[in-house]
Design a protein that fits this description.
This protein is mainly alpha-helical. Helices cover 84% and strands 0% of the residues. It contains 7 helices and no strands.
Length: 140
């Protein structure tokens, strides 16, 4: 059994939700809404329709992402024989580059989303994965 620090995973889930709140709120909320082609009124309507279940599902996703990322940190530390924040940042960046970039770029290429949308979306995951990787590497 791989020894994963469940407390670190739980904190990472909370941190990911906080980063999302700030990223899609005060930092890039207006730009993201505009890149989606939505009006502020449509965004308000969407916010009214979203339920606690939406946030719960996002939190479960953040926990799953953190749990899997923890395994990547553990395996990388074991393989390299080194530990520390830089390993966590490397695993976070590699996860972003290897999984988020290829899977999200289709939104621009095939779904007609603007590059600005992709930059905001993938930027969130880049920042989040690197920060979570650092937390996991330091806390393991």
């Amino acid at each position: 059994m791989i020894p994963v620090n469940i407390w670190a995973v739980l904190v990472c889930g909370i941190v990911a939700m906080f980063i999302g709140f700030v990223w899609y709120g005060p930092l890039f909320g207006k730009q993201w809404v505009a890149s989606m082609g939505w009006s502020p009124e449509r965004m308000q309507e969407a916010m009214k329709k979203s339920s606690h279940w939406s946030y719960l599902l996002m939190f479960v996703g953040a926990l799953l992402m953190s749990f899997i990322l923890a395994h990547g940190v553990i395996f990388t530390e074991s393989y390299l024989g080194s530990t520390g924040a830089s390993i966590g940042a490397l695993v976070g960046f590699g996860s972003w580059l290897g999984f988020v970039v290829p899977s999200s770029i289709g939104g621009v290429l095939w779904e007609g989303k603007p590059w600005k949308w992709w930059i905001i979306l993938s930027g969130y995951y880049l920042v989040t994965l690197v920060i979570l990787g650092v937390i996991l590497a330091v806390w393991m």
